[in-house]
Design goal:
3-stranded antiparallel sheet
Length: 378
Amino acid sequence: MAAARTPGHGPLTGVRVVELAGIGPGPFAAMLLADLGADVVRVDRPGGAGLAIAPEYDITNRNKRSVILDLKSPDGPARVLDLAERADILVEGNRPGVAERLGVGPEDCHARNPALVYGRMTGWGQDGPLAQRAGHDVAYIALTGTLGMIGQPDRPPAVPANLLGDFAGGSLYLVVGVLAALHHARATGTGQVVDAAIVDGTSHLSAMIHGMLAAGGWQDRRAANLLDGGCPYYGTYETADGRHMAVGALEPLFYEEFLRLLGIEDQAGARTDWTRWGELREAVAARFRTRTRDEWTAVFEGSDACVAPVLSLREAPHHPHLAARGTFTDHGGLSQPAPAPRFSETPTTVRTGPARPGAGTADVARDWDVPDLVKDLG
């Protein structure tokens, strides 16, 4: 494929991606590809997508360009196929069979571009008894066993926003999948379909836990294990001002440092004595309630006690470490996470703000040589 003529930054510069507009994990996956330098063209539908925020604030559409096409109109599918013919990757997040009914499914696209990587993002996957059912993140992760791991034993499972299912188990697996398939396509000239299901990816994330469960090192219930809040030196505690500190002092050396700075060295023997964990938890909680979050942050500053303040979304960009690394950035007045990960030879950046629906039509028509995109523009 010819490289895009738009400025590119990152290791995927020159890769062309078509994103059929949706919500949640699909747009985030396409954003990640765009952050890595790909030329991502988002095909928006007239009227926008459901649950969408105002376009100017939708950070998941940064570094992209947008065209508006009505796939239910006579010419809509043909224009998508024109783009697919010139693309390396296509990403869609409809229920199974919808893209086929619209005339833009894998067979239609591969007839025009046999090397195309066709990425499909769904919750349940392309087959199975639930494939045609509606759903959202919380239902997908519920069936995988991962939601049931999170929270206190005497309360319902805690909902981890939609980070675990949509984005970790969904978007990231879709990106890994389409990039692996792109590597294969460039080596062989043959494209393929990537079926990225949130239930598959989220289950895959729990591989280590399943190993521990099989070995007898993990109990199949909430807050009863080393890494799920059951351990008193791996969890969160409230401070005097109603905020919280996070503790992860697992190793003996870190645990000793933690006890020393907290002022409860008499609890040294409780680390490996499960019968004393209740006593240890009460002692730790009582100490943390004696000072504010910022006071405890100062106490643990510079130590290897593995203790950190629990920050809010608005506080996080101002933390000295994150500020020094540029983990967050400001573009067009919007504070947002910077592209990740980082590359020594092909650095990434936020090149453009959120794509406005349809605003990129003329440029895409020129750069991708699809003149029919602009035939209906005034």
